[in-house]
């Protein structure tokens, strides 16, 4: 199946799941902890069931791995996060999304991220480019870390360093123009793709958190590496994603 078809399949499924989320937004959804400070709601599971149904019907030969239902990766794998930003969603904060991305032997290849409360959609792939609400998007041209607006995140369990990311956050804050934390890794990646942020780093992510966002960002011209500038392995979740121009400066700080 060609990449343009995969992008459209991901986008349609993400839109359908996003509508389910929007129906429950600011409706005080019941949540429970599945881990320390890690919340899950009925909307997480309902949306993942919907996504799995859509993807399995459209691409029966492609493996599916989801945050709630797990799964085993294949030669090509769909990684889906039915509700990235669950804590935001539970509290009525608008930064949350549906994230569906495909990964092959070369890494993230295409995906779609839909943020319904903000009215923003991103999608893209290696051969199709990157788009925000239907318009082509591109990474920023900010040349220096000192002029950069960055983003990052923190794990639910912030009791251990360096995984807590707190010491690194403090260090980077001394060198960048600003650092934001919105609570959705997928959207962080997409905001790098459309030039809102100049760079992003984070530790201890899962592949479903970043597969789609990284695919869109790479299609928009971003550079993706591990924290030490080595080859990225999204299943390990330690990444640096930038416009390319500030990459080496940011890696020098986050790899300490």
Give an overview of the whole structure.
The chain has 256 residues and is of the alpha+beta class. It has 2 domains: 134 residues, Fructose-1,6-Bisphosphatase, subunit A, domain 1 (Fructose-1,6-Bisphosphatase, Chain A, domain 1, 2-Layer Sandwich), CATH 3.30.540.10; 110 residues, 3-Layer(aba) Sandwich (D-Maltodextrin-Binding Protein, domain 2). It has 7 helices and 14 strands. Strands 3-4-5-6-7-8-9 form a 7-stranded mixed beta sheet.
List its salient traits.
Fructose-1,6-Bisphosphatase, Chain A, domain 1, five-stranded mixed sheet, D-Maltodextrin-Binding Protein, domain 2, globular, 2 domains, 7 helices, alpha+beta, about 260 residues
List the helices and strands and how they pair.
Blueprint: H1 3-24, E1 31-35, E2 38-41, H2 42-58, E3 63-66, E4 77-84, H3 86-90, E5 97-104, E6 107-115, E7 120-125, E8 129-132, E9 135-136, E10 149-152, H4 166-173, E11 178-180, H5 185-193, E12 199-202, H6 207-219, E13 223-226, E14 239-242, H7 247-254
Parallel strand pairs: 3-4, 10-11, 10-12
Antiparallel strand pairs: 1-2, 4-5, 5-6, 6-7, 7-8, 8-9, 12-14, 13-14
Helix pairs in contact: 1-2, 5-6
